[in-house]
Amino acid sequence: MKAVVLKKLGDFASLTDETVPDLKVTPDAILVKTHAVAVDPIDIKIGSGSRGGSAPMILGSSVAGEVIAVGRNVHDFKVGDRVAANVRGGETYAEEVLVPARLAAHIPDDVSYASAVSVVLGGQTGYSGIVRGLQVKAGQNVLVQGGAGSVGLMAVQTALDAGAKVSATAHGWGLDFLREKFPQVTAFDYKTDDITANGAIYDAVYDTVGSEKVLADSFAATKADGHVLSIVARSHRDPRFVHFFNQPTGATVQTLLDGLSSGRFMAVVDSELPLSADNVRLDYERLQNGGVHGKLVLTM
Ligand SMILES: NC(=O)c1ccc[n+]([C@@H]2O[C@H](COP(=O)([O-])OP(=O)(O)OC[C@H]3O[C@@H](n4cnc5c(N)ncnc54)[C@H](OP(=O)(O)O)[C@@H]3O)[C@@H](O)[C@H]2O)c1
Fold first, then answer.
1. Transmembrane region positions (predicted)?
2. How far is the CA of 121 from the centre of ligand 1 (A)?
3. Tell me: the pLDDT tens digits for 113-158?
4. Prediction pTM value
5. What is the mean pLDDT of residues 62-73?
6. Which of 10, 146, 213, 222 could form a disulfide with 49, with the two C-beta atoms 3.0–4.6 Å apart?
């Protein structure tokens, strides 16, 4: 099968288009023929070598596609089903991907592969951080730092869905997007605005950025009994700090995909390019430079 292979850890110039051995399905997994993958920040972190591992390796964590084989213990999926999954470190930049069945969900007929794959990792983390991490309740004041990123956009939507009063930080395109699509959200420009300018003091802050400044500003704007959840910073001396690491499940992906179909949630795709080493490199540069307009998706 075709795959994009990273030959040398930490060197994205070494990404190449290769033919690698076909995969065989295992008892608790499904084999998926790839239609779309998302470019996730974790792929860049893994490829840079900051998470260990050794090259050559196939990067990629999100996949949407068609089931082409089913493991003998799997009963919820059949050949031909359209599915999506977050398979962290799952070697998804390839023509075929082995997906543990517990991580997969069915894509509703009216949801495209690109939309589906755009929410499985970042979106799942945004949703779960609000629902399980911060346990946001109706009427609470919630701030999402990085509200136009892939995690932040779903955190904003999930907090609104829970009935919270939502504020978010963004810049440029993201700021305009939040103001246009979610006029009920108080959107701050992270480069110029003061997040307490409207006198708000937050019950919960969802931090998707992790810098010292963003954390310090977040704690300064949070109630004494509130919480600042970060998916980037691992620890902080402030007792209101919570680190959140998303534990992917197919059930949560299903909630998001059904939400795309019903209109409960919105997917935002920046671009769809053919999956190739050149396009992975291009998207990594764009993601690292900031200012992308939604999820970067690569298709096959
Ligand atoms: N712990 C977990 O389970 C978990 C899961 C998923 C992701 N993550 C991590 O979470 C982070 C965010 O992921 P993502 O997929 O949402 O990335 P993303 O799509 O690149 O979004 C990041 C967003 O943060 C914005 N931003 C940058 N600097 C900011 C600042 N000072 N204040 C406010 N916003 C700022 C960016 O805006 P610009 O475009 O203007 O730069 C962008 O909209 C990554 O580090 C990722 O690895 C962790």
1. none
2. 12
3. 999 999 999 999 999 999 999 999 999 999 999 999 999 999 999 9
4. 0.97
5. 98
6. 10
